[in-house]
Amino acid sequence: QSAAAAAMPAGPKPVDMGEVYKSVIFYGLIFLAVCLFISIIGRALKVYELSQEAQGKTLGINWDKINAMLFAFALIIGLYALYWEYTVHGAMILPAASSEHGKRIDTMFNITLILTTIVMVITHILLFGFAYIYKYSPKRKAYYYPHNNTIEKIWTIVPALVLTILVLMGFLTWRSIFYKTVDPNNKPIQIEVTSEQFKWSIRYPGADGIVGKKNYKLTTTSNLLGIDFTDINSRDDQMADEMVIPVGKPIKLILNSKDVIHSFYMPQFRVQLNTVPGMQTIFEFTPTETTKQMQEKLNDPTFKFLFYCAKICGGGHYNMQKDVRVVSESEYKDWLAKQKPYLNDDLRKEFNMPVLAPAPSVKGDSTKADSAAVKNKTLALNK
Amino acid sequence: MDHKMIAKQFLITGIIMAVIAMFLSILFRIQLAWPDKSFPFLETFLGKWAEGGRIKSDFYLALVTIHGTIMVFFVLTAGLSGTFSNLLIPLQIGARDMASPFLNMLSYWFFFTACSIMMASFFIQTGPASAGWTVYPPLSALPQAIPGSGLGMTMWLISMVLFVASSLMGGINYVSTILNMRTKGMDLWKMPLTIWAFFLTAILGILSFPVLVAGVVLLIFDRSFGTSFYLSDIVMGTTILPNEGGSPILWQHLFWFLGHPEVYIVIMPAMGIASEVMAVNSRKPIFGYHAMVYSLIGITVLSFLVWGHHMFVTGMNPLLGGVFMVTTLIIAVPSAVKTFNWLATLWRGNIRFTPAMLFAIGLVSFFISGGLTGIWLGNASLDITLHDTYFVVAHFHLVMGSAAIFGMLAGVYHWFPKMFGRMMNPKLGYLHFWLTFVAAYLVFFPLHFLGLDGVPRRYYAFTEFEFMKKWLTVNVFVTWSAIVAALAQVAFLFNFFYSIFRGKIATQNPWEANTLEWTAPVEHLHGNWPGEIPTVYRWPYDYSKPGDEGDFIPQTVPFSQTMSSNLPHDFEGNPEAERIQLEWEAANPVIVDKV
Amino acid sequence: MENKQDIFDPRPRKFIVWLFVVSSTIMFGGFTSYYLVFVASKGKGHGLVLPDAFIYSTFVIIASSITLMIASRCLRKSNFKTQRVMLWLSVILAVVFGFIQFSAWGNLVKTGATLVNNNAAISFIYIVSGLHLFHIIAGVGLIFNALAGSYKNIPLAKKEYRMEIASIFWHFIDILWIYLYVFLLLNR
Amino acid sequence: MAEHTHTNEEHEHGDHAGMDKGKILKVAGILTIITAIEFIIALWAIPGGHIPQHIGNYIYIALTLLKAFYIVAYFMHLKFEKLGLQLVLSLSFILIIYFIVLMLIEGHFIGVHMINH
Ligand code: HEA
Ligand code: HEA
Ligand code: CUA
Ligand SMILES: [Cu+2]
């Protein structure tokens, strides 16, 4: 904190010296004092200028010069502050990406950072430099120079070329993220994440590797996600408290929301996609580092991956998080085996299924009965 | 009520709204800096919304929402466009008043009503709208989702419809006036850049605001009548809502189809003002006048093609994401042209640092910094991590909360003598500029790094996440800087209101500028000019023309009176005039020693 | 570009009406683009046979446009009597149009296609026809303005100006309705 | 001294070379030919399987656009208007097409990702 305050040129240090300082009156008085101070300075300047005038020197204080100096000063301090920000605050940002596509994004990030920093520095040197050099002087006349088409063309084309690079690279990166060809030998693991105010539910697909259908009309207190158990793929689905994923395997996130729009945000993996009611949104990524590896790399035993909500969704928006653990393939298998299935005895009853029947039942007449039940249910819910 | 009066009304209402919105930002900044302390004065101000001196989390969002709404719409759209278009369009093109003074007055009163309704929503039971200034449904559509989506949201929507009506009436009036009521000689290529900017801004408004109305009407029906335009498959807790078939993404399309042009609606007048102020105070013609106009036109057209860059990760088709990324990044080209032309205008100028000039230079600086972060966001793959983080907050505060505001302040300092017949105190102006300039950078620059660390925006407190705790000290620093910035505005407010009554009496052309408004008398007349409206002979940027002994030649001076400074280029397409000029030059060879 | 702004010049204000027409068009453009996306996402539109009343109302509004055109023509020939009759006739036709729209909504409701509907395309019909009706109200206002101009003793130029803005706006809402109707027919 | 102001008025397009009879016939001829090709495609090429349905559709759309261009340009006199107006109108036309295409793509995409149709 002191570093932050010390290196910044202006801005009072935060102080906490008890109740007095919190009172409105205290700050009001300080403010009045400052105003008084400023008005005294103002008076003094006025008196000074008047006295100068009285002595016949028509020019009082040369404000043009002062402002020009301030610009020069601002340039130097500003460039230093930029450097300071990049090194100090820049060191506090997210660690390098822990996913395959994230590495590409990071490359893009670095290129953009370098290009924009160059532009930023050059233009500011010119802007403040010109302001300093060409300050007003009664002896000089400005240079009448209304246009020059060659220069104009240069500074249209050069940025256009730079942007072409950015556009092309950005486009390729974007395409590689959202247009993935499925590798039949390395099928992604499906994980469904459902958001609601203000929590997340995670559903693993179970043995069949497919998360089953949902229908919001089936939502009840015992079936909070509205899973449609008439869909055979749903019956072995498992619930989980945290997201555990194996390293190096592609993960396909299937996102959905129950109430309002939320955003599934997992920045260490450079993943973000909104969860939209009534719609499925899909993001695929491959983690490249386990939590343990990250802890060692960052030398921080408390490090953990997280996902949380990034779209305004109500009063609890600021606290909608879940842990993510990236583990080895074998740990993942062990963990998965321990997760409970969604389908429990209550739900079986609700869906008119035999209690404790062997999970993947055969398609056949039972489905018919089930769908009839669903229909009844829907009607009941629709009132 | 003539246009000058309406301009003043817009300005003063805008300033009041700006002060309110600034105050709201300080309130929520306090919450962000000291999330676990209680401040009794908050309870004094906010009553039940801050029981025990701590702002409630729902109400935090209300503060942010109203702060954003007021700043974008009421301060920068109405306050900036409304003030300066009204003041300058008739004066700078040489018209007696707007095309329809009545519509103009109506426009102000609609705006006033919109402001009143927005402010009134603070005093209702469920509080003001709190779904963010973009009011995405379903959050904004369902009163169950957040208290602010009750009556408060209805008032927000009504206020918005009135506001749009006001902007449309204004914009339509501006366009018609500019196209039909220019004085003799004022062809399009002799208009000052301010007028070009207001003109294109108004067109932008006419073409994009109606779409917002369409969107808002559908949202009102979803909220109040139970239709399903934006709603589908919603379960609140365990209550199943009957709506089916709509899509919330469609609201986002309709909203951003306005919302993106809107951000250029707020920056373009500021750019126009900055161009004019920079030319006057550098005592130099604006560099590349035509290029400046074409880049404005380019921005106008492009701004309709990029709305999807706010939706890269909302579940929009990734194909469109690619398209929008390309169009978004192209906008940097006309912006680059503008930036470099401003720099070239300063080059070898003879710069007078009036407060207006300082703010114009500040605008360029902020526009570059903020625009460059726009390039990051425009890159769809980077936006995956940056979307809805503080990086976005930093971006738009630099480019809108600072650059556009600075344009507005530059305009106020520059045209204050025209509005009130008195001068503002320049020294307080310097103080105001330097404090605001430094403090605004200190407020908004560090926020980029919060965003790069994955800190989302619209978070009530950063206490629930371990990794965010390291930013707490930065937040304290930012809040203090914001308080300094806000206090710096006191210098402005004092200066403004004091100078209205007690400032130094202004001369007719205090900045020695060329444009037409400075040929009108200082005291306001109905109809602007006592006799005939002056005729215009030249472009507005003949500053420091070689061969002329002064350093400015107003637009109303005919070429026949400035033979020594005329350039061959001035006579293109007028052989008769060229012949006379050549004859004169042959007769006076000494004076004709031009660069 | 004359400096004769001190005498009455209708051009800038007529231009204002045109710009209103543009912005109104854009608003309906916004609505119809919502509809297009919605239909593309469902693969189906409102799926209704639109009530016949809409056909009648289309004829009524075309008729009112014609009466208004005649009114303009009469004004140019300084035949104020017929102009007034025609203007009143237009107002009556406008009211009839309104009634038919209401009855069309009644018919829709009877067939079960109510405003509150899980097919937003059906709700859409009410929204656009309703907002169009708002425009009709504004248009009637302008016609009354022209009527007042016709009765009042004001310069001919002003009478013509009032008549002209009423016509511009009225023909616009006429065309707008035809556009909406055809749009709804085509995008079932 | 004579007051010489210079105004950069656009050089007026002399006389608006309108449409003479020959030109009308020529344009009408072109339109007829295009229509004939369209008929051939619709009645013979597609049903006969000489070109696949979707390619046929695209050709059809392209030809219709061409036809629209001729009508707007010659019969509605756009060809003889000021360059500015031509640009503005063509630009708006292109933009509208851009929107419709984008919106249809997006609509279809949303449809595919809706959970309950
Ligand atoms: C005045 C307002 C204003 C202006 C002018 C801009 C300008 C730009 N904006 Fe910004 N923007 C906002 C206001 C504005 N924006 C607001 C309010 C939001 C958030 C809304 C919300 O969600 O609440 C937003 C959000 C926003 C997003 C969405 C972020 C997200 O939510 O994820 C994006 C993404 O593309 C973006 C991009 C851009 C770009 C590319 C520009 C460009 O126009 C910038 C161009 C300028 C330059 C590039 C600098 C000058 C150029 C040079 C010096 C030349 C050399 C440069 C290069 C070669 C690179 N903006
Ligand atoms: C013009 C626009 C504008 C301006 C000036 C500001 C000014 C400020 N803003 Fe604001 N802000 C927005 C537009 C703006 N903001 C928007 C659109 C949002 C998004 C809302 C949402 O999420 O829905 C937002 C959100 C937002 C957030 C994010 C909240 C969150 O996501 O949780 C924060 C946090 O710090 C913040 C802080 C500030 C501060 C400290 C100031 C200032 O106090 C800084 C200090 C003051 C100045 C630098 C000068 C101000 C001068 C004037 C206002 C001039 C008045 C003069 C005349 C009228 C002539 N703002
Ligand atoms: Cu959930 Cu924000
Ligand atoms: Cu944008």
UniProtKB/TrEMBL annotation, chain B:
It comes from the Bacteria. Residues 1-519 form the Cytochrome oxidase subunit I profile domain. Pfam families: COX1 (PF00115). Keywords: Electron transport, Heme, Iron, Membrane, Metal-binding, Respiratory chain, Transmembrane, Transmembrane helix, Transport. GO terms for molecular function: cytochrome-c oxidase activity; heme binding. Gene3D superfamilies: Cytochrome c oxidase-like, subunit I domain. Coiled coil: none annotated. InterPro entries: Cyt_c_oxase-like_su1_dom, Cyt_c_oxase-like_su1_sf, Cyt_C_Oxase_1, Cyt_c_Oxase_su1_BS. It is a multi-pass membrane protein. Its main location: membrane. The keyword Iron applies. One of its GO terms (biological process) is aerobic respiration. The chain crosses the membrane at residues 12-34, 59-81, 102-124, 153-175, 195-221, 254-274, 286-307, 319-344, 356-378, 390-416, 428-451, 471-498. One of its GO terms (cellular component) is membrane. Belongs to the heme-copper respiratory oxidase family. This is Cytochrome c oxidase subunit I.
UniProtKB/TrEMBL annotation, chain C:
It comes from Pedobacter changchengzhani. The chain crosses the membrane at residues 15-41, 53-73, 85-104, 124-147, 168-186. This is Heme-copper oxidase subunit III. Residues 1-188 form the Heme-copper oxidase subunit III family profile domain. Keywords: Cell membrane, Membrane, Transmembrane, Transmembrane helix. One of its GO terms (molecular function) is cytochrome-c oxidase activity. Belongs to the cytochrome c oxidase subunit 3 family. Pfam families: COX3. The keyword Chloroplast does not apply. InterPro entries: Cyt_c/ubiquinol_Oxase_su3, Cyt_c_oxidase-like_su3, Cyt_c_oxidase_su3-like_sf, Cyt_c_oxidase_su3_a-hlx. Gene3D superfamilies: Cytochrome c oxidase, subunit III, four-helix bundle (1.20.120.80). It is a multi-pass membrane protein. It comes from the Bacteria. One of its GO terms (biological process) is aerobic electron transport chain. GO terms for cellular component: plasma membrane. It is found in: Cell membrane.
TrEMBL record, chain D:
GO terms for cellular component: plasma membrane. It holds the Pfam family COX4_pro. This is Caa(3)-type oxidase. It is a multi-pass membrane protein. It is found in: Cell membrane. Coiled coil: none annotated. The chain crosses the membrane at residues 24-46, 58-77, 83-105. Keywords: Cell membrane, Membrane, Transmembrane, Transmembrane helix. Its main location: membrane.
